Structures are given as C-alpha cells and as structure tokens.
Amino acid sequence: MSFPHVQNRSASLPLGHCLTQWARDHGARVALVDESGERLSYSALQERAERLAGGLYAAGLRSGEYAMMQMPNTFGFFVAFFALLRLGAIPVMAMPNQREQDVDALMALARPAAYFIPDDAGNHDYLALAERMRGRHEGLRLVVVDGAPEDRRDALILGNLQGPACPWPGHGARDTALLLLSGGTTGTPKLIPRTHGDYFYNFSASAELCGFSADMVFLAVLPAAHNFTLASPGVLGTFQCGGTVVTTTSASCDEAMPLIERERVTHVALVPPLAKLWVEGREWEDSDLSSLKLVQVGGARLEAGLARQLLDTLGCPLQQVFGMAEGLLCYTRLDDPLETIIHTQGRPLSPEDEIRLVDEEDREVPEGQTGQLLTRGPYTIRGYFRAPVQNTSSFTEDGFYRSGDLVRRDGNGNLVVEGRIKEQINRCGEKISAAEVEEALSALHGVHAAVAVGVPDALLGERICAFIKPEGQEIDPVAIKAALRERGLSGYKVPDQIETIAEWPLTAARKIDKRRLVTIATQRASGEPASTPLRYRRESVPIQSEPFEMAVKLARHLEADRYVLYERHGEWALGVDCAMEIAVDADGTVRRSDGKSWRAASPGAGIEQALADLPFEDWRAYGRADFEFAYLTYGIENTVHPGPLLKIAIPRSEIRIRQGAAQLRALDVEDMARLTEAIHAADGEAPPRCGTPTGMDVRSSGCGQYQRLVASAVAEMQARLYQKVILSRAVDVPVAMDMVASYYAGRRSNTPARSFLLKDGEFQAYGFSPEIVVAVDADGNVTTQPLAGTRALTGSRETDQRLRRELESDVKEIAEHAVSVKLAVQEMSAACRVESVTVDEFMTVLERGSVQHLASHVKGVLAAGASAWTAFEKLFPAVTASGIPKKEALESIVRHEGRKRGLYSGCVLIADSDGALDAALVLRSAYRDGERYWLQAGAGLVPHSTPEREWEETCEKLTSVGPYLHAVAD
C-alpha cells in the first residue's frame, strides 16, 4: 500500500533538515520563550542545535545510534532534540517523571549510546541515576547534563558541547527518526519507531487541520516528550507555521495561567485530569486568559460534562483530540457543531486512515455499535521496536494496529470512545463499558467524579460497583439509581453497589488504583472496615560489592528464620521475614494468615482472590510451589503430601541488589535500620569462605533400582499409555551442609536462567534453575521455556562440540523436545490469545552448568479475563519435570516413585502487585529438612529411552550441584 500524503510532503525534508528550513523561513521570529521570559529566535535555536550536533559528533556519537532524552520542557530539551536529528542520532523519548526501574528497562530495550538529563529536579538525582545506568549498560558512553552541576561525575555539559559542522545524515522518509514511549507502558516497555516521513506528516497535516499560523503562541504545559505535546500538532506543528512556543515545567494554575497572560498565549493542549484542575483553579486564579483562541484536550477520554465546564470557564473554543503515539490521530473540526465537539472525539486526520470496529472474534460490528478499534494508515506504525512477541498480538496479519480502545462511530464518521477493552465489566454475560457508567454518573447533580469497577460476585459473575466523590453533600444510592434509570441508562448497567469515597487510591504512576477499589468494595459489602494499605519505606544505599557476593553475604549476615533470595536478570531480590502468608492446602483451600480463606473454582483463582485485597501497597510476594500442587489441577489423589502445597509470603522487608546500589524496602523504621546496618556490615566483609568440598559421589548408589523404574515406565510408554515421563532419584548427603557456602560455590560454576536460596525454619534449599516455568509481565506478555534433550558439558571443547552435534542429531532427544514444545504451545493457548502464541529460538542449545540442553521459547499474550495465575496453573508443573500428557505422567510418577517430591521439580517464584509473575523451575538443587540433606535429579523418558542412558543423564545433572557441596565448619 502506498501513502502519497506521506511521501509527497516528507520525501525532500527529513526531520534533521526541518529546523534549518524553519530558520531560513522565519529567521528572527521568536521560536521559544521560557518561564523566565528569555527568548530564542529560530536562527538562534538553529545555531545552538548545529553547534551541539558538532560537539556530539566530536564526542563520538554517530548517525544511527540511539540517545535517550529524559528532560523537562526547557530550552535544553529542544536544542538537544534538534541536535540529535541534525546529527542523525535517534532520540528515545523518556518522560521526566520516570524513575529507575522504567529507565533501566528502556535502556535495556533501546541500548542508547547517550543519555540526556537535567542537573536539578528537586529531590531526584539524575546524575546518580545516570552513573548506575552506565554501570549496567555497557553501550552507554555519553551522559549529557543540561546545566552546571557542581559534581559532574564524568558527564558532559550540554551548554559546553560545541564543534564544527558534522556530516549530514542520508535519511529517507522510511527511516526511523525517533522512538516514542507507548502510552500503555507499565511493565515491559514498548517503544514506537516513527519515521521521518510519517512524523512530518503527523505534525504538518495536523497543524493545517487545526488552523495553526505564524501569529499563534502555543503553551507547552505537558511534557514535550509526549506525542500530543510534541507533534499533534504541538510544538513541531507550531514551528512548521512560524509560531512561538512558550515552555513551562509546571502545569499548575498559579504558574501556567500567569504565563498565558504574560505571553498572550493563543493555544494550549491539556489532558482531562489537568483540564479538570484548571476548571477548579479558576475559582481563585484570576489571570487574564482572553488571548486563548483554542484549547485542545486529548490523551484520554473527555467527559461531556467536563467539556461544557471547560468551554464556560476558559471562554475559548474547544477541540477534542483522540489518538495514540502509534499513529492514528482524530480531531473534532473547528467548524463542527457544538454537540459534536462536546460528545465525540473527532474524525481521522487523513483520508487514507482506515478504521475497523470489531468484536472479540474480529468480526465487524454493525454501524453505531461499539467495537475494538483497529487502524491502519499513512502514519501508523506496523510494529513496535524490538518486540516480536508483542507485535503478534498488537497487529493483525494485514497490518492493522489493535488499539485496545472500545469505540463507536456516529453517522458523520466521528468516533466516540467508550473505554478500553480491559475496562469492561462482565455482568451476567453482558459486557458493560465502565466509561459509559462513569459518564452517566458524572452528569448527575452532586457527583464531582465517579469510577466504576467490576467486583467478583457469586451470582452475577461481576457486579457493578460505582465509587462517587460527592460535591459536598451526601449521596443517596437509591436516588442515584433512580436518576440513572430516568436518564435512560439500561437497567443492567445501573450499579449494583454505590459507595462514597473522599480521596482516590492511587498507583505509583498516580493513576486511580482500580484494584484497590475492588478490594474496598468487597470489604464494604461484607461489613468489614476498609483498611489503609501499609506502605513500604524506601531507601537506596550505594554498595561496593558485586551484587551476587553482596546477596550471599546478606543471607549469611541477616539472622532471619525465613527468607527467599531470587536471582533474575542481574538482580538479586531478597525478601526477609513474613508480614502475611498465603498457603494452598492439599484440598485446594487457599488460606491467609489473617484468618481469611477461599474455595474458588481453581487454586489459581483462589490465590488471585487472596492477593487482590492484600493490605499492602506496591507489594512483592516471594514463594514456592511443591510438585504435588499439580495434583490439584489434574484431579489426582494425593497420598504423599499433607500440604501446604504452595506458600507465598509478603515480606516485612526486602532488598533488591544491582550493580552499585541496594534498594531497601521495609514496613517499619526498626526493620529499615536493621537492613541499613546489615548492608554496611556485609559490604565490608570478605566473600564467604567455602572450605573443602564434601567430595560426594553421585554414582555411588541407586543405579539398579533407578534403571528398573526406567524400564517399567518405558514399557508403559511403548504400550502407548503416555508419551513422556520424568522419573527422578534422590541421593542423600551424608554430612551436614553449609547451604549458603554451597550455594555460593555452586553459582560461581553454573549459568542458570534463575537461581535461588531460601530458608523457612528447618527447611532450606538452593538451586540453579535451567529454565522458567512461566514468566508474565505487567502487560500480560507470557513466556515459558521448555528444555528437553541433554548431554554433558565436560570442559573439553572438542568433546563438548562432539556431544552437542550428537544431541542435535539424536532422534530420541529431538522427539522428546518436539513433543514438549507442542504441549507448551497447547497450554499457552489455554491462557493466551491463540493468535499471539509463537515459538522462537526453536531447538537451540543452552549450556546450564554441567549439561547442555535443547531449548525453545514459547511466548504469548494473556487472553481477556486471564491473569498470571491462569498461566501459572496451565503451565505448572513444567513439562520438563513431569511428562506428556501431564495427567498420565503424574500418575506414572506416583506409581513409580511412590513418595513426596516436594520442592524438587516444583518452583520458586516472585509475584508483584502489578500482575507480574516469575516462576523458576526447581532442578539442579540441594535440600535440607531438619537433619536430612539430599540432592535429586531426573531424566526425561520416551519410548526409545534406555535405562543405561537415563541413569547417565541423572548423573550429569547431579554434577551441576554435587561437586560444590560444602560441609558445615567445625
């Protein structure tokens, strides 16, 4: 498909050339004004950007490299932005309020060579953050600071970076110009690659439609890194017309409105929450706003009531803007009827924008009905940056972007946004838009604001609960329901439960915490007092030790009876002691240590309910699931494990350790002081002394018995009772083991996907997980990693290569792996959108300690209504540790092994309040329970297996742990 609008407008003007052209056209006209009143002409802005581009080139930055910008709305932001475009480097637009976790994730994804930051942002030390980022991301070479910090810490000063003219990049319309941050980013970041052609069209066509001109003055009150402020039409649209941009770092009425009066601002862009604050602020703020000619509102759905208030209060025309950084932009037109401007979110910018509204099966909905918005067009992307799995669910095969918005279209082609897919309430099978209920409530007298949520209900599935913040008077639920019916709201959409609330509970991102509202609704309906969630105190402490060594020293140093240490992606997270525990009994009952219990349709659903109303804010849970937890899922009689089968603890305190810093979290002052003292003490200690290995022989016993079990299972598979089973054997360790020292020694010689060290009273374990059972991020992306097929790693390059070739050509090993991947795909499809499930890195070879495996990744995106615990239940136990089909394999394990496996081939996990979950398969591990110490390992059996080879495989796996066992020192 060709898009002439893009090609004709942008082919001769890549974004790096725009400022040069604007300086020629508008020269001495004022381009920028800051809060202090300083002014910068187009020519001066172009000269500064040209000098900075030359300075960056001299410092080693090159065309095609990425440069992250995390800067407020200052002159420095715009100079840096245009300098990068002039050089041909690709700006990565981060938000000024993002903190370490977000920045770290974006760095890992974009791999920037440069990082632009301010020198002063209140209590936030950007320079310290930049130093930590440079320690973690080896490709980050340059840190550029806008300002003059006293301690530069090897950073470059933006104002001092100058150099001769750098070479012009040879960019075309289809080349990537910049990376925008997706508005939906919560956990795993998504970056949006915008090309020179599509982005030029984005702001130039928008400026034309919105009536921008040379005499306009645009106030950039929202972050300029946001697509709405930057180019819809925003700053770039203003520059395209020769207008003036006024920058501010504050959106508050008492600072922004005097700027409007002083600079005679004509245009401003707001988001609905800010628009609401401005309406309220005019009750006391009296600056002269008569210069305003247009206020644009976008970024989220604008309620009709607020639209009318905004028109009345600001006294200027309103334009609604609906769109996404991924592309599509819709605007109400300046000459639209007032009712269209108030009640709709406008029509697409381009005549070549394609819109489809579809149901859950991707079928077109009838005209006038609500459906999910799919879009394709001349400036809409076809894929996220370095996100192949996300792209399978976010884009259709023919290139339409799945926006996630629920939209209907009126007779004139205007779109009306009804909400988001995830904001539907499923009441008695009816899908109800929370936004529709909220708008109906907001129109009622006495309602200041309203939020609707779906609350689990035994009869209705979900009931509608409306939370209302009143306007200074009591709310009568009966009167509210009657008023909604009188206004024509369908009976099944009228809230079942109405609650009054004084202040909204907020997430870390300062959005309304709907999970917390569900908890409050449940508590109020049951007559329980709604408790204020407990908050973790936070502190960051610099450390000199390597993260792994620091984690082990802390495990040794902290005198805790209960902890879990979990290694993932270069971070060691240590949860200490227990503030609250959730356990699953052998009969499936989910119990919480505060006395509550649940019997849900499945254990996973019960766990989800137990976690939903935890009285902690921003929690992380640490836990473990024993192998026999699977018996609940598959309906197998459990005669070997009395329970509990799964335990999850919310820690009293927590330490997350990365290179150069430890992040501390604790529920009370005393625990925080204890953690801080432990960090300082451990940082000064030497690494653990390992002593002399026990010299245990993993081949010393059990050969005959194990080979007889293998022969029995192979005979059953040859009789086609099942396809694959993993049978294990335990090896007792004859001496008392030093579990911490043994973990330390073993981890130094292993290369696991995850590792862990835990203590729960008399029970201890550690291990080097070769794979994950399942990982789910906050955006619902799911990954599992089946390993099947094994050969030893001997330390001899020649021998290891020969064994690798043997592994890759062995029919038995290949067949074993293929059926494992097939089952993983089936299980993922039961929890994920079927079209999103993909296999990548198929049958590669991974080295894990003393063995090498055939490995694949299976990925997908959670289906509507599914959660991380849905995926966990479908994928547990890992096929690597059970067999195929799982039910028949589990029954075979019960028959042949006849004893409790416990944590062996179960999992250790962490779960977060944002819905993320990470579960590591427990293999290559050592265990202690009271006076007993042991190892355990298994082999994957298929009909072609031989007892001799499978015995050898268990020995190879035990060698990942056995040689590194250390006895307790005398």
From TrEMBL:
Domain AMP-dependent synthetase/ligase: 20-385
GO molecular function, one term: isochorismate synthase activity
Pathway membership, UniProt: Siderophore biosynthesis
Keywords attached to this entry: Ligase, Membrane, Transmembrane, Transmembrane helix
Ranges that cross the membrane: 75-94
Domain Chorismate-utilising enzyme C-terminal stretches: 705-957
UniProt-recorded name of the protein: Salicylate synthase
Organism: Pseudothauera nasutitermitis
Lineage: Bacteria, Pseudomonadati, Pseudomonadota, Betaproteobacteria, Rhodocyclales
